[in-house]
């Protein structure tokens, strides 16, 4: 099963945007993410609808942040993406007739629910500002070593 990397990708894009004082085009962001600009526009539209980013059309236009990084959490961004599945594993069947499989599903569902609740709680504790601060520290360390952001 392929992992859903949209949350990681969006966070990557938002941190790139936080480092810039100018709007970034979908094409520029797509190159940073090694994806298609249409994918960026689709994702960014959801973030725009919730007020996290804004877009400007025309020459010199593009995407800019429209939020306070200290007020937006990983959970907020996860919700903006439509709450993609957090776990790549699941039950073999959702409505089994077999009593053994019913018992297995009940145990797994409790564990899945607990794991998701814990993960979402942690997402709510981490702000974009915290990620940005971590990036700044890493950049400072790299500059001393003469390395680039993507090295």
TrEMBL record:
Q: Which Pfam families would you find in this protein's record? A: Rrf2 (PF02082)
User: Which SUPFAM superfamilies does the record cross-reference, listed alphabetically?
Assistant: Winged helix' DNA-binding domain (SSF46785)
List the molecular function annotations (GO) for this entry.
Answer: DNA binding
List the PROSITE patterns: HTH_RRF2_2
| Record organism | Bradyrhizobium japonicum
**Alphabetical keyword list:** DNA-binding
Q: What is the protein's name according to its record?
A: DNA-binding IscR family transcriptional regulator
